[in-house]
Amino acid sequence: MSLLKVWNKRNKRKSVSSLLIVLMLLSMLPTGVLAADVAPPTVTNSVPAADAIGVAIDADITVAFDENVSESVYFSDIAITNGGTVVGYVYTLAGNTLTLNPDVNLAHGTVYTVTLPAEAVQDAAGNQSGAHSFSFTTAAPTSATSPSQMVVQLWGTFTPLLVIRLP
């Protein structure tokens, strides 16, 4: 006689009562608690927003996901680009937010694209993110000096050679 059959004969009452207890406990759980997480993390928001105009040249870039994420296979391929030029950055990844802090101020009046490749981040269940990208334009340069300020500045640079005082 197999060991399983012997166990079942000796513990039949225990097996049925144990099964009933487990089923009762499972029935008390809220709906969906035991459902497997199969949804990949998705981007819910970015700052600056897609197609934003007039973004400060020293602004950080943040990307929010719909759930907490961690680095994954292609995390190092996340890029900030200006045409063909790649901008270096320092990052923080905390909870559901990725923050990119460019190494240098961005150029004025320039279009930048942030690219997150597929499988850049993953959720706690190991679901990989899809690809996502967005672009924004930095603020145009502001005039450093007005024409009246230039006159004052130029006038202030001359040193008089002779000062005449009239009575």
Notable features of this structure?
alpha+beta, five-stranded mixed sheet
What does this structure look like?
The protein has 167 residues and is of the alpha+beta class. It contains three helices and eleven strands; from the N terminus they run ααβββββββββββα. It has helices at 3-10, 12-27, 147-157, and strands at residues 43-47, 52-55, 61-65, 70-71, 79-82, 85-87, 89-94, 97-102, 111-116, 121-122, 132-138. A hairpin with a 2-residue loop joins strand 7 and strand 8. The chain starts with a helix and ends in a 10-residue tail after the last helix. Residues 148-155 have low confidence and may be disordered.
Give the overall shape.
Answer: elongated
CA-atom Rg in angstroms: 32 Å
Overall number of strands: 11
User: Strand arrangement, largest sheet?
Assistant: 2-11-9-5-6
How do you describe this structure in short?
With 167 residues, the chain is an alpha+beta fold. It has helices at 3-10, 12-27, 147-157; strands spanning 43-47, 52-55, 61-65, 70-71, 79-82, 85-87, 89-94, 97-102, 111-116, 121-122, 132-138. The protein contains three helices and eleven strands.
Topology:
Blueprint: H1 3-10, H2 12-27, E1 43-47, E2 52-55, E3 61-65, E4 70-71, E5 79-82, E6 85-87, E7 89-94, E8 97-102, E9 111-116, E10 121-122, E11 132-138, H3 147-157
Parallel strand pairs: 2-11
Antiparallel strand pairs: 1-3, 3-8, 4-10, 5-6, 5-9, 7-8, 9-11
